[in-house]
Amino acid sequence: MKTTLTSLCLALFATAAFAVEEQPRNCADRDAVLKRLSGNYGETRQSVGIGANNSLVEVFASDKTGTWTITVTMPDGMTCLIASGQAYEKLIHDKLLQPGDDA
Q1: d(CA 8, CA 101)
Q2: Is residue 18 helix, strand or coil?
Q3: What is the pLDDT of residue 10?
Q4: Which end of the chain has fewer CB atoms surrounding its CB within 10 Å, N or C?
Q5: Residue 66 backbone zone (phi > 0: left; psi -120 to 50: alpha; other: beta)
Q6: Over the range 69-91, which residues count as b (16 or more CB within 10 Å of their CB) and which as e?
Q7: Distance between CA atoms of 57 and 60, rounded to whole angstroms?
Q8: What does each of the 103 residues of the chain score in pLDDT, given as a tens digit?
Q9: Which stretches of the chain are DSSP H helices?
Q10: pLDDT value at position 19?
Q11: What is the DSSP-derived secondary structure letter of residue 99?
Q12: Which pLDDT score, from 0 to 100, does residue 98 have?
């Protein structure tokens, strides 16, 4: 699960890096972002990885509400929201589908 989410985060970061630069209104100090994710949504960190330019890519989620958020924190401490959604599900030992497998 962690490997899958980290890979997803890194792929999203690679395609979303330019969107982060274009939309600074989705960014704030790391402590403020974490406080909001925890306090408002009950999300905790589920996975982490290092992205381009030594950025920290993280997935936060709540097992109770099902909400999830992907963030990128730059070395200067600025944290930006990359994506968020609902229906988070923790997968344990999930195997990737092969061509021809039913989803």
Answers
A1: 21
A2: helix
A3: 46
A4: C
A5: left
A6: bbbbbbeeebbbbbebeeebeee
A7: 10
A8: 554 444 444 444 444 444 445 545 699 999 999 999 999 999 999 999 999 899 999 999 999 999 999 999 999 999 999 999 999 988 877 777 778 877 6
A9: 2-22, 30-41
A10: 46
A11: T
A12: 79
Residues 6 or more apart in contact with residue 61 via CB below 8 angstroms: 43, 44, 46, 67, 68, 69, 88, 90
> What pLDDT shows up at residue 15?
44
Residue 39 tokens, joined: 């306090």
pTM: 0.69
Residues in the chain: 103
Residue 78 tokens, joined: 């600025």
State how far the Cα of 69 lies from the Cα of 66, in Å rounded to an integer: 10
Q: CA angle at residue 58 from 79 to 8, to 5 degrees?
A: 125
Q: Is 98 helix (H, G, I), strand (E, B) or coil?
A: coil
The structure tokens 């999930």 sit at: 94
The one-letter amino acid at 68: W
